Amino acid sequence: MLKEAIFHRPKTNWSYSYDQKTIHIRLRTKRNDVKQVTLFYGDKYNWSVIGTQNTPMKIFAQDELFDYWLVAIEPEFRRLKYGFKLQSKDETLWFDEQGIHETEPSSYNLFFEFPFINPVDVFTIPAWVKDAVFYQIFPERFANGDPSINPDNVEEWGGEPTPYNFFGGDLQGVIDHLDYLEQLGINAIYFNPLFEAPTNHKYDTVDYMKVDPQFGTNEKLKQLVDACHARGIRVVLDAVFNHSGKHWPPFVDVREKGESSPYAKWFHVREFPLEVREGVPSYDTFSFEQNMPKLNTEHPEVQDYLLDVARYWIKEIGVDGWRLDVANEVDHAFWRKFRDVVKGVNPEAYILGEIWHDSLPWLIGDQFDAVMNYPFTEAVLDYAVRNTRDGKQFSDLAGYLLAAYPQQANEATFNLLGSHDTARLLTLSKGDKRRMKLATVIQFTFNGTPCIYYGDEVGLSGDNDPGCRKCMEWDLKKQDVDLLAFFKQLIHLRRNHRALRDGTYEVAHASAGSPAFAYIREADGERFAIVLNAGSRKASVQVEATLNSAQPQIVFGDGEVTLNKKGLKVSLQPLGYSIIRL
Prior knowledge:
Malt_amylase-like_C, 6-stranded antiparallel beta sheet, Immunoglobulin-like, alpha+beta, hydrolase, glycosidase
């Protein structure tokens, strides 16, 4: 066995409390190197039984280099002392806090330790998130329901989007189309910023306590939230707490008064007076955008202000959570206070961070419930859309991502295939709906919570900003009815079968050089095989699976299924897919 590949470290994603009675223990080994791993464990204060209890571990994920093993333990007294026994064909090793040994340790005192399951430390996500299907709305471009509050320079609905123009989308427009969202199967909405700001995107806030008059009023938002809740739809708002807009009154005061302003330390000012030299502001900003000065969230007064904002919209308006813009550039201490405040008002509020990279430091239970899962986005696009990753490469990356975070974080992660910051899925697919559908099938049958970017379901196209921010198409003659039916059926399937939401995940087929890939989801006695062909030719996929019935049933997609001794053989068309009930 390759000793250098063996890894475990208590806490974070390697040992953690999944709930108030269960501890998950994970171990990493070289891929296909270890035949069996046994966890030896016991209560740390009962020396006579430490090591006498043992249970086999199972591989729950694989990537290109490693196997990831898992076992769930429910210790009687919520504490654990444990070590690992690893076996290959001709070798046995033991692994504890002092390293790897060729003989069984003489003292269990050096075993790893999970000290105690303290309930306050258990990473708990809102239960509703695992069942959610999100729909992202860019408010200015969804629907114009109240022309009386249009901006003065409003343009005709459906025109060419630019970084600066307006079309009059508002909250009333969303209210007017709640029937549409409900019929689509949506049960959660994520709104881009709604607070007062001069731009169409509203990421340059002027007033954090006021809905932009272009969209309506605070009372109108409360009406919208109440109407959504009556239909079982949750509402999540965008919190822009990394930076404000240049017209936010505290920043205006600093611009005018410099160091003498009482708000001077609310921002990260490197040099007074505030100015821009060769495109670089003398104060920290989002990127180098002089209109978006970075907030000093370490300052007590800034903290108090922003935490009041977070509290107000949940308590008074009833929103169900926050999406946190540029979340990785805000200090961890602030986010810990933010979580305490938000969960204190509503323990079931969803806290979602915008982070585009590995996010483990934010996902250990003291800050966010989830992040926008852009690594998953890129993996799916590479496999299903760009055709730059084969089935095994996608499987390996998916396994790596599943091992990167605690299980509850994976269950709540926000899986998207496009947003206001990216080119639209149909455009990335070069207009090929087969590739778009293939990617979406993965999104809706994988661990995590799927989100549809408004209009994707009716065939909106568009390149990067501003092209991806087109007006929603409400003319039924111009909507893609085939795509809309596809989304409705897929959403219905996911919402009606828990196995496709948070069931177990197992790779059933992945072969180097092959565009085919298959995996199995299981929960509540139901098992589904998801079989995919990202290639331009027909493919036959052997799925090794035990069957619950004599004849598997294709419940979504196409293809042909025949039974054999190993399970079933699935034949797919180019860029085809099948969801099969086993």
